[in-house]
Write a structure and sequence with these properties.
- The complex is a heterodimer of chains A (332) and B (262).
- By secondary structure, chain A is an alpha/beta fold.
- Chain A contains eight helices and 18 strands.
- Chain A has two domains: 7-190, Rossmann fold (3-Layer(aba) Sandwich), CATH 3.40.50.620; 213-331, TPP-binding domain (Rossmann fold), CATH 3.40.50.
- In chain A, the strands form four sheets. A seven-stranded parallel beta sheet of chain A has the order 7-11-6-1-4-5-12, with helices on both faces. A five-stranded parallel beta sheet of chain A has the order 15-14-16-17-18. Chain A has a three-stranded antiparallel beta sheet with strand order 8-9-10.
- Chain B is 27% helix and 30% strand.
- Chain B has helices at residues 40-56, 71-74, 76-80, 98-112, 132-139, 193-201, 245-258; strands at 2-6, 9-10, 20-23, 28-31, 37-38, 59-66, 84-89, 117-121, 144-153, 157-164, 167-174, 177-181, 205-207, 223-229, 238-239.
- Chain B has 262 residues and is an alpha/beta fold.
- The chains are: A alpha/beta (332), B alpha/beta (262).
- Chains A and B meet through helix 4, strand 7, strand 9, strand 10 and strand 13 of A and helix 4, helix 5, strand 9, strand 10 and strand 11 of B.
Chain lengths: 332, 262
């Protein structure tokens, strides 16, 4: 192997806070670094971000590498990969942890191949092999039907982690750490693609990622009007409406509501799955929910293998009565 | 516009979960009783290529890499309207990882030459790795845009809508470039009878590792699959009872209230 040492977390920021997924990365990174008896470092990229380094230290980092440059104000993959490549070559970590999100999905593999190594995306568990000290990377495969444990034989071992697969540490403001500034030294010629516009879809009400209750519908809902009934229950429970893939493909509901491997990965307190069969690819998105409640007319539907509570019946008859009863119970 | 689409043959992800089995001795998965299919994500990439061809003209070459490739399966993109198929079929590919697969595909693309755009699915439905497209871009030093939901061809450039968690980004790239396609692009077309007949007449180009300058015996994987397993779910669902669906619904609500879930 190489003489690379330590665990590095690529820490993303939004406004004046580190992203929850980065705090989750720091938490598992801390555990892995302690297990290896090595340092946990953090890499932060952006513009006007120097005040964020103490947050990363409070979240578990020993050392924070800050690249503060006006050219890094907004995410641009070519620029970010180029800077990350430079920082990682300098820091020489054994493990690099990123988030499996819009940026991590493309940064991790491109960075890995540029560094002559490999990446494993969407890990739900990470551990050090006691014998070899290599990173055991567990990730869902076959749309969630199975999980694979993968070992990267080159350094650094780059991974992205699935949202909410790990729990962030309570910030500890008394933790001490070192802050190192690294110049971006960005050569503008590396930038190949141009981001012309960022379109934010308007979402009425609570965002599905933030909702404590999600009422989700599947193919059997059948129409835009069907989803209005789900919306009524969601509003009552101060939650959000989600969907499996078919309703999104049929434009009954916007793509941003899609829960699953290729949509949102969420972990609400309560997930009410209505007319959802529970394909593995959908369950990948909601299996982190604390309590799953299923309404489905097929007793054999896979969703009932995951649900804590259920009703076998036609949702068109079950849902109105259920919503009405919930309304009464909440009022009493 | 010359478009290359990389598509793989996979076990049918739409087969019922109960038919999914793992061959633990070989760390392989299979769908009992369900024939393999073209990867659904790859089909979205084929669809994206066909729409571009309809708009600006051009030629679509499909590349598939693997073992035991069934002709009726890997010819589906041809039946949908692609023009040419290159098959890289060799036992040595069965041991590959994301890196070695992307390297073999990139080498094939280089040998083929004459391309403006390379399309891949956002990930494959079997490995869910999501790395082939970005890796090909890095190996060939090309611009890369992932998760496309719309591609518009312009004068030696493309404009792509990239899916984001909060909406989408509009990104422009010079050509040649690599784009990975997401399901938001829209439903892939079904092959027509005419398309199926045309596909029958197209003989795939068969290349072996040596044809693209690869040493089939050399290990060039960077990762190792240690174990493949199925997570266990204990069925412990508590069903609400009742004479009618409405009664069951009322009982469910009461049960949830009692358990302090709501």
């Amino acid at each position: 192997m190489s003489d690379n040492k330590g665990v590095a977390v690529y820490c993303e920021i939004k406004g004046d806070k580190i992203l929850p997924i980065s705090a989750e990365g720091l938490s598992i990174g801390r555990k892995l670094a302690d297990n290896l008896g090595q340092e946990l470092s953090v890499i932060i990229l952006g513009s006007g971000i120097s005040a964020l380094a103490p947050q990363a230290i409070a979240a578990g980092a020993d050392k924070v590498y800050v690249v503060d440059d006006a050219q890094l104000k907004d995410y641009q993959p070519d620029a970010y990969i180029s800077v990350l490549q430079k920082v990682i070559k300098q820091v020489r970590p054994q493990i690099v942890i990123m988030g499996q999100n819009d940026s991590g999905r493309e940064l991790a593999p491109r960075l890995a191949y540029r560094l002559g190594t490999a990446a494993t995306l969407d890990c739900v568990d990470l551990a050090i092999d006691p014998a070899t000290k290599r990173l055991l990377q567990t990730k869902p495969v076959y749309g969630g039907n199975a999980q694979a444990i993968i070992v990267t034989e080159t350094d650094p071992q780059i991974v992205t982690i699935r949202t909410k697969a790990f729990t962030a540490l309570e910030p500890d403001a008394s933790r001490k750490g070192e802050i190192v500034n690294i110049p971006a030294g960005l050569d503008a010629s590396v930038i190949k693609v141009k981001i012309l516009n960022r379109v934010i879809a308007e979402i009425a009400g609570i965002k599905i990622e933030d909702a404590t209750v999600v009422v989700a519908g599947g193919r059997g809902i059948g129409s835009v009007d069907g989803f209005k009934q789900l919306d009524e229950l969601a509003k009552l429970l101060k939650g959000a409406v989600g969907a499996s893939r078919p309703p999104c493909d049929n434009n009954w509901i916007p793509d941003t509501a899609q829960v699953g491997l290729t949509g949102k990965i969420i972990a609400p307190e309560v997930y009410i799955a209505i007319a959802i069969s529970g394909s593995s690819q959908h369950m990948s998105g909601c299996s982190g929910a604390k309590t799953i409640i299923a309404i489905n007319k097929d007793k054999e539907a896979n969703i009932f293998r995951h649900a804590r509570f259920g009703v076998v019946g036609d949702w068109k008859k079950v849902l109105p009565a259920f919503t009405q009863k919930v309304k009464e119970l909440l009022a009493s | 516009m010359n478009i290359i689409v990389c598509v793989k043959q996979v076990i049918d992800p739409e087969a019922p979960p109960a038919s999914f089995k793992i061959d633990a001795a070989n760390n392989r998965a299979e769908m009992k009783g369900a024939p393999p299919v073209i990867d659904p994500y790859g089909e979205y990439a084929v669809e994206a290529a066909l729409r571009l061809k309809e708009n600006v003209g051009g030629r679509i070459t499909v590349i598939s890499l693997g073992v035991n490739l069934l002709r009726e399966v890997v010819k589906k993109p041809l039946a949908m309207g692609a023009d040419e198929l290159i098959l890289l079929e060799d036992e040595s590919f069965s041991k590959g990882d994301s890196w070695s697969t992307a390297y073999a595909l990139a080498t094939t693309i280089k040998k083929k030459g004459e391309f403006d755009l390379i399309l891949c699915g956002r990930e494959a439905s079997d490995t869910n790795a999501g790395q082939t497209g970005p890796a090909i871009a890095e190996i060939l030093s090309l611009p890369c845009i992932t998760l496309a939901r719309k591609i518009e061809a312009g004068d030696n450039k493309i404009k792509v809508e990239r899916v984001s968690s909060s909406g989408y980004d509009v990104i422009e790239s010079p050509l040649p470039a690599v784009v990975t396609v997401s399901n938001e692009i829209g439903q892939p077309r079904y092959p027509t009878i005419k398309g199926i007949m045309a596909a029958k007449k197209i003989e795939p180009i068969m290349w072996k590792p040596a044809d693209i300058g690869l040493d089939a015996t050399a290990a060039n994987q960077r990762t190792k699959l240690v174990k493949l397993f199925q997570p266990v779910h204990e069925a412990k669902c508590e069903f609400a009872t009742g004479e009618t669906p409405e009664e069951m619904a009322v009982n469910l609500a009461a049960k949830l209230r009692e358990a302090k879930v709501l």
